[in-house]
Structure formats: structure tokens, C-alpha cells
Amino acid sequence: MLIRRRLALAGAGAALAAPALRAQGRYPVQTVTLVTHSSPGGGSDVFLRELIRHLQPVMGVNFAVENVRGGSGATAVARVARSRPDGGMFYATTPTYIQTTLLSRPEFGFDTLDPLSVVFLDPEVVYTRKESPFNTLAEAMAAAKANPGRQKWGAANPASLERIALERLNRLTGARAAVVPHEGGGDLMINVLNGTLDLGIGEVQEIRAQLDADRVKLLGVLTETRLADFPNLATAREQDIDLVVTKFRGLAGPKGMPDEIAAQWATALATVLESPAYKAVFTKESLVATPQLLPRPAARAFTTEIANDIAGSLRELGVAR
Length: 321
Description:
- Helix content is about 45%, strand content about 20%.
- The chain is α/β, with parallel strands linked by helices.
- The protein has 2 domains: about 5-120 and about 250-315, Bordetella uptake gene, domain 1 (D-Maltodextrin-Binding Protein, domain 2), CATH 3.40.190.150; about 125-240, Periplasmic binding protein-like II (D-Maltodextrin-Binding Protein, domain 2, 3-Layer(aba) Sandwich), CATH 3.40.190.10.
- The protein has a 6-stranded mixed β-sheet with strand order 2-1-3-10-4-11, sandwiched between helices.
- Helix 2 crosses helix 9 and helix 4 packs across helix 11.
């Protein structure tokens, strides 16, 4: 389903939830812990640490980021699911927490958390080291098809959206490349830079430092249209590869959290997204703000629809029933 349809549906829900977007007084706790399965320097870690720089003055609370590794995100989800629903702990959501649930059936899956807000859509890019002979995704796929089974591609943890995207790319192109999972984007980048991997997949914010240092180059973007800040980067579809991926970044908390707390978050996040300082940051990282998905009812509906789409993709790949 197209992103624009999802956002239109969510926008309708957001309109209904608008009366709840008024601040409800002082926030109930003084310190909020934001938990991620990502390693330091990975996409969710970068997202959280940049967000709280701008969110702290708005909410007037202290923030801590906690990196909880293991179980392809299941350990981090369990940490939050077991916490008190008092607004003191949230999990940084991406499609990974849905896929881990569908593939591994852990005790605490994505459905044991309550979506709070969806803050961004995060375009996925395919990249390689600067010295690579490939300059486009089409060139890399042509070489892979000419030498089946020879290439190695890197993705984040085994249940990540990126891993599934590369498996779909394998199926679409017949490359039969080895898809190597990593616990985080930082580990993945090391193996791209040292030539262990022919290419990697991730988000612009995750690889920005290496892009700015001219150590990696982009081969293609897995979106419906080109990115505004990379107008010369062709989409996969423009390179005759029919692959579009939707990644989101948001927050979820333990079930049972009062509506008043959720409304405070929606208000605070909307304020931060309108901040010129934060806009400059997330625009540079090619993140697409989704203010219509900040209210909890809209985030819940969006997450349910994404989960249904992911389940269909996993069945198509033959890795889930």
C-alpha cells in the first residue's frame, strides 16, 4: 500500500484526536528513559539522542537513552513492556520490532507495547564504499546476476526491515547474494568500509558521517520518489528494480498508560517538529516528519496496518506463515 494512502488514513484519525492534544499540566515523572535495540551510532540511537536535545526544553524533564542489545530487539521490547505505564519509559519503534515478533514469536512482541507516536518516515538507501566499482544499484545488481552467489550484502539485525528488503532484492534480481545481519548500523558500516561487504542498506542519518567524509557513496534509494536533498540519486524503480520500502521511527510504551500522558507527548513532539533548529537537523537526514501520526490513535492504526503489510511480505518470502 502506498505511503500517501497510509498517511491520509492516519490524518483522519489525527483530526478526531485533536482535542486531546492539549497539555495536561506537569509531566508525571522527572526522568524518562528511551530504550533502543540499536547499538551506539545506529539509526534508532542517533534518532533518540538528537530528538531529546530538542525535546528536553519543551517537556522540562530529564532524558536517558538506554541501548539494550539482544534478541533482534526482543530484549529491549521486554524491558519496556515490563515497565510501569507512568510515562517513565518508552521504546524507539521501527518495523524491526514487528518483524521480530512475526518471525521469532518472543514472549514480549510488538503487540505487548502500545504505540505512542510515529514521528518520521525514514527512507532506506543502498550504499557502498567509495572505492567500489559500482556507481549505481543497477550496476551492482548486474554484477551480482553475472556472478550468482559471489556478493555479500549487509543489513541490520536478522529481523530488520533492511534484512527483509535485501532478501526481496535477491529474489527480484536472482543475485543469490549472502545477506549478512549485524546487531547495529555501526557494525555494518565497518564491514562495508573494509570491503568485507559489497554493499549495505540503511538510513541517511545512520551513514551521514561517512557520506560527509566521502568514504561511502549512494547507489539507490528505496522510495517512490527521489529524495529532495539527493536529487541525482535514482530510486530502485528508476533503475528497473521494483522495490519500495517503508520505514518509520516512533515511540511505544507499556500498555495502560493514561491518555493524558499520550496527549502531552503528542503536543510536545508537534512543537519540536516545528522548531527551526530541529527541522534543519531532520531535513538534512532526509527524514520525513509525520505530524498527523503523533496522536496515539493515529499511531495505533498506522502500526496495525504496517504489521499487516509486513506479515504479507514475510509470507511471500516463505519465512512466516
